[in-house]
Design goal:
By secondary structure, this protein is an all-alpha fold. The protein folds into two domains: 162 residues, no CATH class; 47 residues, no CATH class. The protein has eleven helices and no strands. α1 packs parallel to α3 and α5 runs parallel beside α7. The protein is globular, with a radius of gyration of 19 Å. The termini are far apart.
Length: 233
Amino acid sequence: MAEPTAPPSLRAEFWRGVRAEFPLLIGVAPFGMIYGVLALAAGIPASAAQAMSAVVFAGSAQLITTQLYTATPLLLTVLTIFVVNLRHLLYSASLAPYLQKLRPGWKFLLAYLLTDEAYAVVIADYQRNEHPQAASPGFFLGAGLALWATWQASTAVGVFLGANLPQNWSLDFTLALTFIAIIVPTLKDRGLLAAAVVASLVAILSAGLPYKLGLLLAALLGILSGTWLGEEK
């Protein structure tokens, strides 16, 4: 009778997570640089821009902040970011069965590292595991830290570049291009497509609203339409 094989070590799983995340880092690096440049262009101090990457560590929230920093009251900015980032509740719920037996320290650390790109790699790997309770936190840690380090470094490069670019260079359009490049490949079902179309149309039609309320309205209506059409059979 063959002896059961020992599970991979935490270190082995860590480096496997780093390798799995590596292809996505090629797209994350310019995304971080764009954030750094736009943060300085919006008037955010370089130290605060870099600190936001370390504390918040959420690309979409950080880029939205650069757009709302001077034009929108703080409460509306926070509410907009909250709505946009509600997807992390779904990420957490789908990962919970694999991580529920971890100590609280592990859970807090992995929750901090939970981002779109890390989730995509981690959930795909965990779903291939026949025993959810045996999923290694090392894989998640490796994927998340690889992304975190890349984001911090690319933000720093963007902040440095932003400080040396002519003030008359308008780079706001790069934010829209970046999000389009991220979102379009994910529109693979009716619900997601409906959410994207409705949110885009509402954002355009409501662009004249004060305090950039159109962005919040577009996010809410996009989520509602995507949920409604996605649930229809």
